[in-house]
Write a structure and sequence with these properties.
309 residues, mainly alpha, three-stranded mixed beta sheet, globular
Length: 309
């Protein structure tokens, strides 16, 4: 038998072995689903980066896991809990809209643990509470829990009302005054409320006084410098700008392999290199702002900081 024939035979044998192994794993996963309805096979794990990137296309409409399906699949199968299998990992995936199941998962932490691997993409600046489990989660929670109290919740509400009134006074009321009519005015609230959310986070979460104002209002800051103060002059982006760009470029950063990022520094690639540079600058600026806030908090409350170590 020739070498070519041996290679072909070996490749076919390897493929057959992989096929049998995968089929066995799928059968085992289906058995673990028990009598749950659904049992579709998904090409991608629904809680990984690739699934997020292709959510608008896969799974197809009518399949379990379709991004825009809403509650239609639960109605289709007549159950508030349905099952599927991720082909790549051959693991069972449970989908639920059942309140009792959520309560059971919340209180039975030893048996039902967080899928930490799914949150790896969010560990941009290192370990955090969102992507932690077990002892690490408890440690992060112990540090963060003091921020979630009635006083801070009231402060967030107060800042939200202040910024909303600032927006109405600056952008909405003048529009009606110019039109001099009581007719309805159509406003796209998505970008407005996105900006308002960022300003609330900057003010209530990071202590950076934020304002909403137009460029024509000389008595206030412009929106471009909404969170700018003397402590930020050494940053290339203001806090608001850094957060806005970081959020918009998060998926791009997740899907761009490190080797491509390094290659773009050595070789200029049209569109890609400027996009990577903008993304890197935004993430580094946000990191610098966060370090400023943490540094200020440590300097003002050294005893509290030592108690967490």
């Amino acid at each position: 038998m020739s070498l070519k024939a041996l290679l072909v035979f070996g490749a076919c044998l390897w493929a057959l072995q992989k096929f049998i192994s995968k089929a066995h794993a799928i059968a085992q996963a289906k058995m673990s689903l028990g009598q749950l309805p659904g049992r579709n096979i998904l090409l991608m794990h629904p809680f990984r980066s690739a699934a997020i990137a292709f959510a608008a296309f896969l799974p197809l409409k009518g399949q379990i896991g379709h991004y825009f399906a809403g509650f239609s699949n639960y109605l289709k199968y007549g159950s508030t809990i349905i099952g599927s299998i991720a082909l790549w990992d051959t693991v069972p995936i449970y989908w639920t809209a059942d309140g009792g199941a959520f309560r059971a998962a919340s209180f039975d932490r030893p048996a039902i643990i967080k899928d930490v691997e799914a949150y790896e993409v969010l560990r941009i600046y290192g370990p955090n509470m969102v992507g932690a489990e077990g002892d690490d989660f408890r440690r992060h929670k112990n540090v963060a829990k003091s921020a979630f109290n009635e006083a801070n919740v009231a402060f967030v509400w107060k800042e939200t009302i202040r910024l909303l009134n600032d927006w109405l006074r600056t952008e909405v009321y003048p529009t009606f005054d110019e039109k001099k009519t009581d007719e309805a005015v159509e406003i796209d609230l998505l970008p407005v409320f996105t900006e308002l959310t960022l300003l609330v986070i900057a003010s209530a979460g990071f202590g950076k006084q934020a304002f909403w104002s137009s460029l024509e209002t000389s008595s206030q800051h412009s929106k471009e410098d909404a969170t700018h103060d003397t402590s930020e002059t050494h940053h290339s982006l203001t806090f608001s700008q850094a957060v806005t760009v970081t959020i918009s470029k998060l998926l791009f950063k997740i899907l761009t392999p490190p080797i491509v990022q390094r290659l773009s520094k050595a070789i200029y690639i049209p569109w890609l290199t400027p996009a990577i540079e903008e993304t890197t600058n935004a993430f580094e600026s946000l990191r610098a702002h966060l370090l400023d806030v943490v540094g200020s908090a440590r300097a003002s409350n050294p005893q509290d900081y030592e108690s967490y170590l």
